[in-house]
Amino acid sequence: MSEVHPQFDNVRLIASEEHSWLGASSLERSTRCTASPLVVQRVLEKYPERGGGTEATFKGSAEHDFLLIDCIRNEIDPESLRGNVYRFAEGDKEDQGHALIISDEHIEHAYMLKAWIDSTKKELDDPDLEVVTEFPVDFENIFGLPDSFSWIDLLCYSPKHKLVIVVDFKTTRYKTLYPEGFRQIIAYILGAASGLNLNLGEFTAKAVIYQPNVSSPRHPFPECDYDLQELRAWNDFFSDIGIEIGLDPKLEASTEACEWCPAKPECKAHHELQSAFFNELTPSAPTTDIVPVETPPVLTEEKFIRHLTDAQIARVLDIAPLVRGFLSAVENHALIQAQNNTVYEGWKVVPAQTKSRYRGSSDEILTILNKQWHLKLGDISRKTLKPLSEIRKVLKDHKNQSLLKRFNNDFVEKPTGKPVLVPESDPRTPIKTHFESIETHPPAKQEVLEARINSEIP
User: Fold this and answer.
1) Is 58 exposed, middle or buried (0-12, 13-18, 19+ CB in 10 A)?
2) Where are the alpha helices (DSSP H) in 65-165?
3) Which domain holds residue 222?
4) What is the pTM of this model?
5) β-sheet bridge partners, residue 165
6) What is the spatial distance between Cα 393 and Cα 388, in angstroms, rounded to a whole number?
7) Number of structural domains in the chain
């Protein structure tokens, strides 16, 4: 949770939270590799620094507190928090190395979420709609395991419609997430029902993922409904998983299970999966009828790729997140060890490159440059257009309702994203490939061409 810094009004501390032995964020791993909760616990006892998260995870937590706690729960105007600093705090100790400064992007994310809540209230026409942030859920009722709990980012419950809406806030930029079959959010729904004293069959459920940092036709609020049959099936699945975790845990490596696991460097199953993967990609040695080649040639990266079959390339795409995660885990482990006096031959620890920034308040600097140094305001400052969501909000409340439509038509566009490879399960419509987009001859010209060819054939 965030709290006001005792010395600065515009600085908030993000207190570290106690994490459960089996929590929602690790469900994708724990429900696939049922031995992972115990293995991870043992690894973190030996390497506690691996449990501290990265700068990206901290900033995600900081934006979470800004958005859900300050803007939604405390109903603070996002604009008033512009420039505020959120820092990490462990007890009374403040970490100066991690900070999130609230920018236009964060403010726009807050207004987007507020607009979605207002739209949901209007759509449901339920004045008693309950909107709660950080709703606690006890997974012990689902998995049958002690010390398993978590918090739902945003829970909306409509007594009128008996509707449970679970919203999960994601800040990741590299991976597009959808609520269909997403185990974390399904467990949230079941946990919310238990917390609201609702039995299966007494409510309907909707899952929503708010991921404002990615762009796709369904974002930023992709949603899906879960019916009674699906929820019962998932409830039984989680119960069986809880029994397996408690009585017969199994170590099973997979892309989904290993991607964020802090035990990867020591995990035997993960190493075996890596070895099997690279063995699949080893190209066979070329041979000739005259001189047999006993050892594979040394291949450059480009030539190696050309030797891969289509099936091998598809396999690379399947497991790429796992490989990236493994490499990242090794690099993070090496950095921590190097900072503790471990020497890796040919490597050293240096400060990362950073961008220069203003020291102190930009308003104070602007005043000094203008009043004391006599520099023109037009040369040292600029007025910028407010974020798109704020302009839309102004026009939505304007007496002339046609202005919003005109604004969207005249000044707003949705650019086409760069081509990316995604799994077949992704709901987006595929674009035409280069070959498919080449039209050799339009139909009318094709007929003329065929007639000319026929006339020239004797």
Assistant:
1) buried
2) 104-124, 140-143
3) 2-252
4) 0.62
5) 156, 206
6) 9
7) 2
